[in-house]
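User: Fold this; tokens only.

Assistant: Input:
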Amino acid sequence: MSFDQFSADTDSQGHWGLIDRIYETGQSPKSWPLLLDSLFNSFSFDENADSAASNGHGTSLQDLWPHFERALSLNTYIDDVTSNTAKMAHADFPYPLVLINDALEIVYRNAEGVRLFPPQSGIEVNGQKVTITNSDVANRLSTFVRASQGDKPDRSISPLCHDEQSNNHLVAISLPRESSSNLVALGWLDPVDQGRLTTGHFRQLYDLTDAESRVLDLILRGHETDEVACSLSIASPTVRAHLKNIYRKTATAGKNDLIQTIRCGPALLRRFLAPRTEMYTDTADAEDRRNQIMALSDGRQLGFAEFGSRNGTPILLVHNLIGSRLQLPTSEENLVAQGLRLIVPDRPGVGLSDVQHRPSFRLWGNDIGELADHLCLDRFDMVGSSMGAIYGLALVHNQPNRIRRFAMVSCLPEIADGGMARNLLPSTRRLFQLARYAPALLKTILKFIVRKGPDAYLDELVCDLPQLDQRLYEDPAFHRMMVRAISETLRQGTAAIFDDIRVMANPWGFTPESIRVPVHYWHGQDDTMAPHSMVREFADRIPDCTQHLVEKESHWLLFRQWNAIVAELLR
């Protein structure tokens, strides 16, 4: 159903018909965005009042909140049943696989691997040694093994022989290792069918969601995007969004690459045996530094992390809305090389930090003042990104004597200005409208958004990002870092996200003219979440502000421009 049809349908049903639609939608998660869009288009908002919005039927958003909550509970129950069924359907990896080293010795063989080499293949297994009786196959395999060693191995799939009976090809593929020589995997490539792989295997091997697994299954069967959409009764843009996720999770660059990778059994081992780089230092001491807690004067506790050099130049990083103390803008190795001591506190209700009873910019500034005293920091530099940039400005306003310089990155505009809010992306604007007019409903919707946990939430978040920002998540180390950071964001539920949005949606309590600290304003020219045209006027009013508008950059420029930001900040 299109948005126009859904919206017209919803608007014509009246009060009870609207409630019926909410419960119907609770059983069909893909329709929630349509429902929310139609609601926001049918309800009027008075930007100068704090009362709840209402529609032509006399229904307010506050009236609908209990029904949203019950529908969410129903949806969660259905998700749980589906998830448990999928877990029971998982099976062992179905392909016969053998891994050999450069001496043609078998270093791994799965349960199916005993039947990998039929007599006509020209390859025999004697104990742990591979013996090749066919000279052509021996030459091909030896040549490929040699080409697979070294720093830049051959990553192609090399056909060794053809089984005329099954029409399959025995192939070899190089698998990188962190140390010593690379391994070579041997397996059969079925050029016609994907073999015995099922949607359950796709979930197990690539962490695909149920919807992504169904899309992949149909793509492997030769269906085009529109055919997949018709078969699954979803919109073509939704199929394309699922495909973007599938390409990222399978490390493929397009449909042809995806089909070849999935259909080749050994290629499925890439994600398990590829070198695992991490943004974090993996030691017990580093783990302790990431999970520190201090007691605040009002009895609450504040969680924070430290990264990089212990005696380096201190920089406080203020995380964004869906972030925590574990959100790193660069690797720890790079921080050490830069001579930086990065300090990242959890905001109230996030990770290890207790919630504030009445959260505000001023109270958060007091918390950071106590943290600075705890760490014996008289003065320090600070970086804040997205919503974290606003919290950073508030700290600059409330604690000007503690901050030397502040890098304001991808800052959001002043949301309390109704005219300004209208220029935001619809999804962002609606969150802030709910915060002002229907906070109870916002709490329920936040629970729905993150209901499936950090991994699923991150997948949905990435789909809505510009292409430049999506590429960040193609790096497995970055993806793992973000999952860990979001896990801490949601450790205590969604209350902290709700509080942050409410604080942002109301008057900030300070003006740009009141900022008395040197500010470096960094913004991407192609930022769609917080367009430069909306934030520039605000930045122009800061007395000491150096502006850096970066061409061809988007909202998450912090993670791409960290070195430049720090170099300019400390220059």
